[in-house]
Amino acid sequence: MSGIYIHIPFCKQACHYCDFHFSTTMAKKTAMVHGICRELELRKEEFANEEVQTIYFGGGTPSVLELNEIEDILDTVNANYTIIDEPEITLEANPDDLTKEVIAKLASTPINRLSIGIQSFNDQDLQLMNRAHNADEAEKCIACAGEYFDNISIDLIYGIPNMSTARWTQNIEKALSFNIPHISSYALTVEPRTALKKFIEKGLVPDVDDEAAREQFLLLIKQLEKDGFVHYEVSNFGKPGYFSRNNTAYWQGKKYLGIGPSSHSYDGKSRAWNIANNPKYIKAITMGILPMEREILTKRDNYNEYVMTGLRTIWGVSLAEIEVKYGSRYRQHLAKESEKFLEQGLLRLDKETLLVTKKGKFLTDGIAADLFLLNLKDRK
Question: How far apart are alpha carbons 179 and 190 in whole angstroms?
């Protein structure tokens, strides 16, 4: 299974918490679409023997694209890659872009999955994050999208400063009222060089409360599982049959091409990333040059990656697979380092598979980091 990720680096305005690569100036949008199409052409040989099963428009805000721009990109993919009969094609979108007319037009394209950046159904939260939409727009766009799309995901953020448990509960209940089949939910993190970081440093906004975030996360799990969702990855909940195929492939170590500025690619042996600069990206691509750097991954790198991604999912980390792929020394390291987490009830062992318990889920990334292999003579 292989996928193509397409980064659209434009947003109407900057969210206070976001540190992704984007521009709020649309002047180069047309040139960027041409550049993305050209990169797809230049890199087709990388997937010459692959079948593409997922196409994902991420960002930024892909819903700022015109319909013809989306179609140009998809036409270029189809002309240069082998696509399965029923690929999952996802478009990330913001509520303020999803008018009834736009949703109807999107439904006429090959796009068959919408990922809508709701973040909150509360105007106070949305204003703090500097989102471009309001709560009313959030509700209306989901209701309308449901008339045209079956496969819909929404994003929600917990751990927002001043968010009470009651308000978070209202967010969850509102989301469930729309009967959507997939929800992605993330803890608000304070990234360097963001407006939120500066506001907190100046005392204008209280810092995030990790304990409140943990409680809200556990409440989310309880409510969604009660409603029939499967918590198949730390930040993702899906009804059976509606897990994100794009994201699942990433967590399971499948190949993917990252197209557009700042996007990353993975082929099982190396990781590559494009320059995070729109003008430089466009200029290089126009000249037929791929503006990327590449890193060859060592055995240790791949082991660490497998531990990190595997623990985040319901499929866990297989000790047997560790031994087959990386050798007995890696398995012994993992078995030894995981003992304390098994004793603390943060991990459990199901036959030959390490899984994070419900108690440990909020700490998954930290647990994985402690299981990494950092110093081993045979690191290749």
Answer: 31
Q: Residues of the chain with pLDDT > 90: what percent? A: 96
**3-class DSSP state for residue 280?**
helix
Q: Is 238 helix (H, G, I), strand (E, B) or coil?
A: strand
Looking at residue 254, the DSSP 8-state letter turns out to be -
The phi-psi region of residue 221 (left if phi > 0; otherwise alpha if psi is between -120 and 50; otherwise beta) is alpha
Show the tokens assigned to 137.
């727009």
Q: Which residues of 81-112 are buried (b: 16+ CB within 10 A; e: fewer)?
A: bebeeebbbbbbbbbbbbeeebbeebeeeebb
pTM of the model: 0.95
Contacts of 232 (CB under 8 A, 6+ apart): 238, 243, 248, 313, 314
Q: Strand pairing partners for 87?
A: none
pLDDT number for residue 19: 87
The proportion of the chain whose per-residue pLDDT surpasses 70, expressed as a percent, equals 98
Encoded amino acid at 342, one letter: L
Report the run of H or E that residue 271 belongs to, with start and end: strand 270-274
Q: Which helix (H) or strand (E) holds 102?
A: helix 100-107
Whether the pLDDT of residue 376 is over 60: the answer is no
In sequence order, what are the beta bridge partners of 265?
A: 272
Interstrand relation of 270-274 and 230-233 (parallel, antiparallel or unpaired): unpaired
For residue 261, pLDDT beyond 50: yes
Q: How many residues does the chain have?
A: 380
Helix (H) or strand (E) holding 295: strand 292-296
